[in-house]
Amino acid sequence: PPLATTAGAASELIDHQQNGLLVPLDDAHAIATHILELAGDPYYWQRLAAAARRTFESYPHWDESMAGASLWLHENFGVRYRHGDSA
User: Fold this and answer.
1) Which residues have C-beta within 8 Å of that of residue 30, sequence separation ≥ 6?
2) I need a labelling partner for 68 at 20 to 30 A (CA). Which of 13, 40, 59, 75 fits?
3) How far apart are CA 74 and CA 47, in angstroms?
4) What is the mean pLDDT of residues 72-80?
5) How far is CA 10 from CA 56, 72, 82, in A?
6) 19 touches 51 (CB < 8 A)
7) Cα–Cα dist 53/43, whole Å
8) What does the angle CA 8 – CA 10 – CA 11 come to, to the nearest 5 degrees?
9) What residues have CB less than 8 Å from 17, skipping those under 6 apart?
10) Which tens digits make up the pLDDT trace of 18-68?
């Protein structure tokens, strides 16, 4: 499961103790504590890992994102992009 700091965008995707773990920036003790918790409880580790996977799968993949962006560009600006076109 993800173990990340509260700084940056990770906290927008990780719900602490639901699909990963968040620690304050520069808090080595908190990082060590969470690693020991995960190592000592395989069920907890598996539950967080499965929830993280579901979170990951709930977001569009690259092809879906680019298809949406291409459609938006075409609808708004008449721009067409085909795979393999040069920039």
Assistant:
1) 23, 24
2) 13
3) 42
4) 85
5) 12, 27, 32
6) yes
7) 15
8) 90
9) 48
10) 999 999 999 999 999 999 999 999 999 999 999 999 999 998 888 888 888
For 11-79, strand residue ranges (E) read: 21-23
Kindly write down the DSSP assignment for every residue of 56-71, as one continuous string: HHTSPPHHHHHHHHHH
Token representation of residue 64 = 């879906």
Q: At which residue do the structure tokens 């890992």 appear?
A: 49
Query: In which element (H, E) is residue 24 found?
Result: none
Tokens 């962006």 — which residue?
Answer: 69
Q: Two tokens at 58?
A: 């709930």
Q: Is the pTM of this model over 0.85?
A: no
The DSSP symbol for 25 reads: T
The amino acid at residue 21 is L
Q: Which two tokens stand for residue 86?
A: 């040069």
Strand partners, 23: 5
